[in-house]
Amino acid sequence: MTRRTVARRLRVVAPLLAVAGALLLIAWLGHKWRDSRKPIGPPGDANLSLLVLVYGSSNSHQLLRVEFESGEPMPPEVVWEGSPSFFDTRNQIVDERYVVASTGGVIDVWAKDILRDPHGTLIEVTGGRVISSESNPPRKNSIFAFDLKTRKSVQLAGREEAPYLLPGKRSPDGTKSVETLFTSLTLHRLEHPPRPLGSFHVHQSVLSSNIGNPPVLWLDDARFLTQHGNGNLIAMSLDGTRTPVVEVPAKTEVIGAPRLERDPDGRIIYYCGERFFIDPDAKTWERYESISFGHGFDARWIMLDGEGRSVIRHRGEEIGHVVGGRLRVCLETDLASFGSCWLYPWA
Questions:
Q1: What is the residue-averaged pLDDT of the chain?
Q2: For residues 117 and 261, what is the distance between their CA atoms, to the nearest angstrom?
């Protein structure tokens, strides 16, 4: 891509970045949205879009959308504006239309409308329903399901509620969970007593305020991935069998608990001082060199002229980068800086 092409693209993106105190960059394969003056409804054709959560003042944030047509970014449009409390750290896009926040809030992006205010904590989105847990004294928690089609919320009870009351990380089929208490793991199953699985070691720095909880990621309904010592990843079966998976050169002392997650492309990522891709079936690993946002957007860490930076790319072509916590974009031969930037791939 030529310097002139880069400049043309970034003249559109730069004004957006200039207003952002901190950005969450979210990749989304979305439809082409119609002008707000036209009737609300599903759009006619599909284009690649980028959703950007802009941290404004302490009282108001904005969710913006930048559409890409023929690889060129279009001017941003405001999808939502409101309280910072609407969003938290884990959010997702559903059916290429709804933004579901980890707080249980729901935004209809096509209609630019709030369907559900934040209530409680998101558990999952399944079968067109947003399942969330809410504190409801005198009970410990109550489970609610918000239907994206009828736009009504109902409280679950009995057998329908029971799977969502399982503590810890739930299995894909929702009938089991693994609860973490300090360095110990416990298996919970519906209509079965809890089964202790033992202790799993985590090496923590003396500077860490975290107790050192072992990470948990379900591989299927019968196995989950965890660690016994930093970098020593093992697969646990429901009967307590520990099967070695892979050893990676993770740091021996970390600040903050290790994590196991899947990126938007479905790959398993192990965070332990550094980031690693893990393939449990092949029992292999590789260093995590780029953060995927899905649909062709990513951020890649590089060293240039002795300075580290995260390069923001779309389909392998640079559209911006972060240097020393400052977001910079290339405008012909100049570097312009537009405040700090937080990159976060939505699940």
A1: 76
A2: 27
Contact (CB, 8 A) for 164 and 143:
yes
Q: Which residues contact 256 (CB under 8 A, 6 or more apart)?
A: 208, 210
The CA R_g of the chain, rounded to the nearest whole Å, is 22
9: pLDDT strictly greater than 60: no
pLDDT tens track for 183-227: 999 999 999 999 999 999 888 777 766 677 899 999 999 999 999
Single out the residue of 314, 345, 299 nearest to residue 72, CA to CA. Answer: 314
With contact defined as beta carbons under 8 Å apart, do 123 and 112 qualify?
A: no
> pTM to 2 decimals?
0.74
Task: Tell me how far the alpha carbon of residue 264 is from its chain's centroid.
Answer: 8
Give the model's pLDDT for residue 138.
58
How remote is the C-alpha of 265 from its chain's centroid? 12
Separation of alpha carbons 225 and 207, rounded Å: 27
Give which of 308, 327, 330 is closest to 317, Cα–Cα.
330
Nearest to 102 by CA among 85, 115, 89: 89
Q: Around 274, how many Cα atoms within 13 Å sit in the side-chain half-sphere? A: 16
Say what the pLDDT of residue 251 is.
84
d(C-alpha 57, C-alpha 157), whole Å: 40
Which of 51-65, 217-231, 245-259: highest mean pLDDT? 217-231
Report the pLDDT averaged over residues 35-55: 54
Where do the domains of the chain lie, and which CATH numbers do they carry?
A: 3-118+292-340 (no CATH), 166-288 (2.130.10.10)
Residue whose token pair is 């409280």: 155
